[in-house]
Amino acid sequence: MTDDTLAKILQANGRGPLAGRDAIREKEYGIWQTVTWAEYADEVRRFALGLAKLGFGRGDKLAVIGDNRRRLYFAQVAAQSIGGISLAVYQDSIATELGYVLEHADTKLIVAENEEQVDKVFEIRDRLGNVEKVVFDDPRGLELVDDPWLASFPAVQAMGDEFGREHPDFFDRELAAGTGADTAMLCYTSGTTGAPKGAMLTNDNLLSSVEESRIAEDWRTGDELIAYLPMAWVGDSWLSVAAAICFGLTINCPENRETTRRDFREIGVTVMVGPPAYWEAMLTRIQVLMGEADWLKRGLYRRFMDVAVRVERMRQVGDPVPAGLAALNTVGEWLVRRPLRDLLGMTRVRRAYTGGAPLGPDTFDFIRAMGINLKQLYGMTESSSACVYQPDGEANSETVGRPLASTEIRISDTGEIQLRGPQMFHGYYKNDDATGETLDENGWLATGDAGFVDDRGHLRVIDRAKDVSHLNDGTMFAPQFLENKLKFSPYIKEAVTLGKDCDYVAAIINIDLEAMENWAERRGVAYSGYQDLSQKDEVYDLIQGEVDRINRSLAADSALAGARIRRFLILNKELDADDGEITRTRKIRRGVIAERYGEIIEALYSDLGRVETDITVTYEDGSTGSIHADLRVMDMDAAANGDMRAAAD
Description:
CATH superfamily of the domain at 6-202: ANL, N-terminal domain
CATH topology of the domain at 6-202: Rossmann fold
Radius of gyration: 26 Å
Largest sheet: 7 strands, mixed
Shape: globular
């Protein structure tokens, strides 16, 4: 039997040299529970047979909903083992979002983590006519629920044991019938500009991507990774399922979100993957910790991290590092950077990756200067995750690296990046029109990103092609670039910059509550909550200083000097995926922002110093309410002339 599917490779792992090695761990009640590759393969076989007993078969869809749990991974591979197709849904989706994906995918069976997820499914039960069974992992709160629609994971496996005795050849026959051309997964896009689309990824797509990565990167059997990324993100499907099975990686599932940092340190991960938000949060945490440290530690940190960043930037462009600076950097490694990495649980990390969205150059340089081998990736759901990597020794904050050997890149006449290779998806489920717009007859994938390939063969991504525009004076306006500049500040969690066809750039800013709470406590600033704190005079003064710092850096670049931020306000609520303002992967939905905050945007481009409006918010249960906003508009020109208070009056 040819190992041309993920399910076949898993079963081979369970019989071969990997059989007794650790495959996946999950922390329960403070104790790590370990599953070997032999046990992983057996768990999958038993659940697959249980699915067959329930009438699940070739071409049927199985959805998993919840945090990273070993049984949810077992369920996905079990469905694939007998010809089914798996998909994962964002665990923090509200019921209506959940309903759209489950209904659109023609889902037949759902595996839910716990009572919370089961409750959301029951809330939309009348929309899910195709769903025949809901299987739960954690029984707490569900033990006494008597509903034929529900079944526990062990109960389905028990059905599988019985079915296997009655049909001893069934599993092997169905496993062998699978091919590389079979669709293995439906991975739904984040839906930045509309409803999410289900990208169909075959075994061939995923295996090609994994094997190419094996050639490009230093993957090792037994590498330790933490599974904390949303299971619905293609990056987790690629890493925790496809790459883990093919490379023999050990995947560790934290007990819950609150314990992730501690669990990270306990495991001592060797390879780390995180979206920009993870690295931005790490930077904020470091800056907050150092802000609370005594004067000596704070002074050493500032001195030696400044040196480390200078050295890192010199290395990126190939400049020689003077001996004196190199010596200082070595001292900084022992006094500052090594202790910080130990605090973060990153002493064993050989490689770390960032992808899914642009990471600001300042943040990237800082993390690398910490001594963490952070590298950028580029890819998308439709390319089976990353297909462009930065080789070791070539990491650079301005590029995303070189394409894998089988990946071709071309730049269209309009400046759009296009990709072609065996890992490109073969279409959107039930959406031929969108498929035709994204994938041409020659296999070229339109990414929607603007960029170019530099002299070294590295791809540089400028921004989303549709978002790159100009101010009225012709200055280029790239909103993500400016937003990443703003988010380098530990006090700014999110930002939306505006400027297309306008006279100047303006910004809507979210403060970082964790960092601001520490800042406010140290300065004795009293507040009652996020809304109150965000509108304090002292907070506006602080953010004005952060914006001024960014404007000074822009002024040093002749191409971007005209894109400095002239006016901003601090929103009195966080941008929220439940409100449709950002995606579940924290990408800004600019169309929604423009529609929801029209009055605020209008005020930013007027002479008004304040704006009052009512903002609709969505609560966790899906209900909506309204909060009143009386927001100050900060004019940076007035502030520069000492009229900061007057600008708001």
